[in-house]
Amino acid sequence: MKNKPILIVMLTYNDRTVKNAYEIFDSCKNTKAQYWGFKEEPLPHDEMKSLYKYMKECGKTTVLEVVAYTEEKCIEGAMLAVECGCDILMGTVYSDKINEICKKNNIKYMPFVGSVTDRPSVLEGSIDDMVAEAKSYIAKGVYGIDLLGYRYTGDSYELNRRIVNEVGSPVCIAGSVDSFKRLDEISSISPCAFTIGSALFDNKFNGSFAEQIDKVCEYIENSGE
Q: 5, 69, 115, 154: which has the highest count of C-beta atoms within 10 A?
């Protein structure tokens, strides 16, 4: 029996953290979502630390996703994850240095694969190459893969399916999960997790922010039954 994919709520819009992230989390902390996160920009670091602290006090699992493409900026993001006490670091272009930082600080590292550019991010590259790349990172001891499947310029479904089936480690499908059709695809592929951010702000699942979170969680939980 396949595991049900986990929703990671991202308090972000167009790959940037919203300014009222603290208030939104506070109003939604009692929803069914266990995993919460946001991006490394543009909140001041003290606000980020305060919000992550509050999330942890509420018993949540915390995620920082870093949308950066130079090793210097990616390492800065990793150190920010350490400073904030995050459980999971998603994103970054893979770096052995970041992998070591995460291992030393007991942070689960899930780097990007493929050629990622822009913000909001766009994913390019061949599926075969991305499968091989993902396997090489897993061999180096990363926890899993941050897959920008629905930002892919090619066949998103095929990419998602092959990475999940062939890599054999946790995969999070991140970005542009914005319809029940895509939830159905995610349910059929069964990655370990998926993120939703902008779609909640755009009311793609019809309801208040909290209502949409619970609706998505319940939809995934009941899928396939």
A: 5
